[in-house]
TrEMBL record:
<dbReference type="Pfam" id="PF08958">
    <property type="entry name" value="DUF1871"/>
</dbReference>
<dbReference type="InterPro" id="IPR023162">
    <property type="entry name" value="Apc36109-like_dom_sf"/>
</dbReference>
<protein>
    <submittedName>
        <fullName>DUF1871 family protein</fullName>
    </submittedName>
</protein>
<dbReference type="InterPro" id="IPR015053">
    <property type="entry name" value="DUF1871"/>
</dbReference>
Length: 85
């Protein structure tokens, strides 16, 4: 697993959007990490995160939570690409 993926997972691991306990979202977080690599636009990532949680839990975290997390993840990806250049 590359360094960016580890950092993305660590950030996601701290997020417990449905208060079911940390460590209970690994399949969803794997899908979200993949989506981070696919999208550069925060709102496209927000939509994908909502789809992932809707599919798995038949509910979604608040839009504000999703925007906050998506922004953080995109910023981490952008920071990583800046350090590689």
């Amino acid at each position: 697993m590359n360094n960016l993926n580890v950092r993305l997972y660590e950030a996601l691991y701290e997020w417990d959007p449905f208060q079911i306990g940390k460590g209970n979202y690994d399949p969803e977080f794997a899908d979200i990490i993949q989506a981070v690599h696919e999208f550069d636009d925060v709102y496209k990532l927000v939509n994908r995160i909502q789809e992932i949680f809707q599919f798995s839990f038949e509910q979604i975290p608040s839009k504000k939570e999703n925007v906050t997390m998506a922004t953080q993840l995109i910023n981490m990806k952008n920071d990583e690409s800046c350090t590689l250049n």
